[in-house]
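Translate sequence into structure tokens.
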Amino acid sequence: MTDLNIQCRTCKCDYRVQVHHRDWVVYQASNLPIQKVFPYLSADERELIISETCGKCFELFTESK
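Result follows.
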């Protein structure tokens, strides 16, 4: 497993997301959709990888639109 230590851009909270190392390599080298590469992660964890935004902040952002 590979630990991804990600800080939310909005609230500055630190998060750790664990992914299989081979999946991380595939994700970085391909254009595959993140849900295909990491089906075992939650939507919030995948969003954190994509945008460095935690689930709570993402919800607040989408509610304010």
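Note: The mean pLDDT is 96.
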